[in-house]
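Q: I'm writing up a methods section and want to include an example of the input and output format. Could you take the sequence below and give the corresponding predicted structure tokens, formatted cleanly so I can copy it straight into the document?
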Amino acid sequence: MTGFEPTPEALLARLDAVDPAAYARSRNALDGAVTRLSPYLTHGLLDVPDALAAIRAHHHVPVSHKLAFEFGWREFFRHAWRHLGDGILVDVKPPPWPGAYASALPADILEGRTGVPVIDLAVRELHATGWLHNHARMWVASYVVHLRKVHWRAGADWMHAHLLDGDLGANHLSWQWVAATYSAKPYVFDAGNVARYAPRDWHSPGTAVDRSYEALDAIARGEPDLGPEPAAVRGEVSGVMPPAVHAEPPADALAGLRTTDEAGWVAQAVAACAAAGDARVRIVHPWSLGGARGREPAVRMGLLHAPYHSRFPWSARRWAFVLGAMRGRIEVLHAGDARRALDALVDAGLVPVVRDALVPGWREAIEAVRRRAVVVEPVPREWADPDRYCASFTRFWNVVAR
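A: Here is the clean output for your methods example:
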């Protein structure tokens, strides 16, 4: 099972396939028994408590288990995002290198032709599938920031656009962790680490990463861009064109979905709610694609916050995943300003039911309408979110896992 279908059946198949013992043994290897549940978690088809409950129905997973620990990281990133807000999009603390980082990724990285096999294959896999093992994500981020001197934000935005599970909190804070703007030291890796955890064709002897950790740390703190490998400079390494990203849904992804402007969207909601005899309307947005735990409204309306997607465009593959989950489950889809759309529903006498989201634009829209006749549902958590900010996962875990 390699692809990601945005269906309940595909999700259940992934949950049934989870093997916690194998995960604990092999999670660091690129061919290890990782769960690949992250796209479903990011987009609200699944929540951490339900995931753990489903897995625990067949396996013993105490809080000390490595799998529970990894679910804890997801909840930690959301905790940090809640406290930092848009602060996750800028350096939390100064970077270790005093030079000027580049503001854009060079073409050789985007096209997977740096001449470093581990980087080129990881980039191509990301572009081809919309998913990448966490170890490979860290390798790419480390190479981009520390050896090529590209600012972490450029790399984080690029990866977020192509990942099916692109979550601003987890993705951008992970890049900051690698960059040492959210950690104590730069994360670096060597060719030996790749040889231990990756398939043979990913091994990268004789390249920029084939150095001691001390040398790599010194480069991260004091050297300029190392550039692509000599073979790549000579044109001996072929690349592939990166997929385009889109601020609006591509036509193919919209197939089978009805779309309309704000006035038509509200009118459709009013008519559907009148027919159902229920003034409540479920707002289905990209971070709330699954069902709810309580009595669901009969009417489901799809909503995209267009300003967010202009700021953070997505690949066609990610659009297809999100809109595929909406297809057949909503009355009609509207892309516009989320706050205006929610206000318009309330003004029309309806009661929107919307899941909370920390995503820029959605966060502000939900906070603005929270005081009106809107039902705001929190994202379910396995561990209670500490009120005081925990700046590290260790501190967070010591609080919540007691």
